[in-house]
Design a protein that fits this description.
Elements (H helix, E strand, L loop, with lengths): L9 H26 L2 H9 L3 H13 L1 H14 L6 H14 L5 H16 L4 H30 L6 H22 L4 H5 L2 H6 L3 H12 L5 H28 L9 H11 L11 H11 L5 H41 L1
Helix pairs in contact: 1-14, 2-15, 3-12, 3-15, 4-5, 4-7, 4-12, 5-6, 5-15, 6-7, 7-8, 7-11, 7-12, 7-13, 8-13, 12-13, 12-15, 14-15
């Protein structure tokens, strides 16, 4: 009996992903254009308060430092030691890459690639660490969303978004059980023949083992989770500051309902840097609590400018490194 052969679908995935991305972007742009008045939105943007915008930028850039420290702790648990300032540099460069690659996932890929060059043979572990870091960030965001749910009761009518938050909670719990439960390992092993035929068994096994390794470091995981939750809580204030900049006078409470969902939505890797999806989310969510669509769109666009500002340090680092590299090349040829 012949072993069934599975077709290589890699040549199909890219066109499908591009089609989905274009469709999602088109729908988001169409939704935005139906909701806003372009001239009024422009007036809101041009009259934005620069100090609130600067506060949002400061919050986002400042929180990159503790995120690099978190990454350093997780690397050390796998025996990978690197300097804090280089890891910070890699974080900022990944933000720059995220401006031209699909959402934060693209930036993570750049971070893995650069770090793997410094630690040959550890790419599987590095991928597991970065994705575990992303997973802990998602779990922390889900926890904040649960807190936001409690804060919303009796204050805001955002029930549809709370259902979405519940789906993220369920998915997070499922992933935690999948990666850290020993009792599920025999069940997962049954999938190995299929994964081997699809030629993904080795990288997936390396990734799984890399994540599962942290089961023996419960204290570290708890500390990183709490640390991440605090960072995410501070980052949500950048959304609040962006909204304040365009005159949306809501207290921080509503943003602890909105922020976790917003960060999770941006993880969907279909549009470049969350283009249009980010603004559509602002218009939809803030519109549900009575905010004018023009102001909501302006706030979303201003937060996009915050992410652009977050990418500037990485761009400056790459420019400086290329200039130094060019200077060294000239000296070498001389």
């Amino acid at each position: 009996m012949k072993t069934p052969r599975f077709p290589n679908l890699s040549h199909v995935r890219r066109p499908v992903r591009i089609l989905v991305g274009l469709t999602l972007t088109t729908l988001a742009v169409g939704y935005i254009l139906l909701k806003i008045d372009v001239h009024q939105t422009w007036d809101v943007l041009t009259s934005a308060n620069p100090w609130w915008f600067l506060l949002a930028v400061t919050i986002m850039i400042g929180t990159a430092l503790p995120m690099a420290l978190r990454w350093k702790w997780l690397l050390a648990a796998q025996g990978i030691v690197d300097r804090f300032w280089w890891l910070t540099r890699a974080y900022f460069v990944s933000y720059t890459a995220g401006q031209i690659l699909p959402t934060s996932i693209g930036g993570d890929a750049v971070r893995i690639f650069e770090t793997a060059k410094r630690h040959p043979g550890r790419s599987g572990d590095l991928t597991a660490i970065v994705l575990l870091e992303r997973g802990l960030g998602g779990a922390a965001t889900v926890l904040l969303g649960a807190i936001g749910f409690l804060l919303a009761i009796g204050h805001y009518a955002v029930n549809a978004y709370l259902w979405l938050e519940g789906a993220f909670v369920f998915g997070t719990i499922l992933l935690i059980v999948l990666f850290f439960s020993r009792s599920l390992r025999p069940l997962l092993a049954r999938a190995r023949p299929l994964l081997a035929r699809l030629r993904v068994e080795r990288p997936l096994r390396a990734f799984y083992e890399g994540v599962h390794h942290y089961r023996s470091h419960p204290r570290l995981l708890l500390e990183v989770f709490v640390f991440t939750t605090v960072i995410q809580a501070v980052r949500i204030l950048a959304i609040w500051a962006s909204c304040k900049a365009v005159g949306i006078d809501l207290g921080p409470r509503i943003y602890y309902v909105m922020g976790p969902l917003f960060f999770l939505v941006l993880l969907v890797p279909f549009t470049l840097n969350g283009f249009a999806v980010r603004e559509a989310f602002f218009v939809s969510f803030l519109g549900s609590v009575g905010v004018d669509a023009d102001q909501a769109f302006a706030a979303g666009f201003l937060f996009f400018l915050v992410t652009v500002a977050l990418a500037l340090p990485g761009g400056a680092i790459l420019l400086w490194e290329s200039m130094r590299g060019g200077a060294r090349a000239e000296v070498g040829h001389g």
